[in-house]
Amino acid sequence: MPDALPRFDGAAIWVTLSPEHQAAIGAAVLEMVAAENVNNNLRADRGELGPRYRTVSPYLDSAIACHLRDAIDAAVPDEAWESDGLPAVPSLAGPLCRECGCGERNACVTEAGPCHWFEPDLCSACVPEEAPHA
Ligand SMILES: [Zn+2]
Ligand SMILES: [Zn+2]
Fold it and tell me: Which-ligand-closest: CA of 122?
């Protein structure tokens, strides 16, 4: 059986960053939410916001994403993104099956219904036939 997927622990990385890097990343994340807010309002707009918002909207996501990426690249060392040559999967994705990669939001579909946790990182759909059931 494969080892557990390597995980990226953003909180653990965050506390190692300088206050300047934290400030740059934090500001860019807030700006990204502001962009999302503009775009969400625009989707619900019935003309009240006017053409300026329609003009600026398509560029917001990519412009802010570039700022965020630059701030992160300046702060986080390349090796933080992988473990033993494999990309690290965000810890906020929650528990993941070490065999198939399923999780709380994408359970396997089996004849008995959705899979469940057999062990903390092994789902019921991936339990070998001969394994004793817990
Ligand atoms: Zn599984
Ligand atoms: Zn599963």
Answer: 1
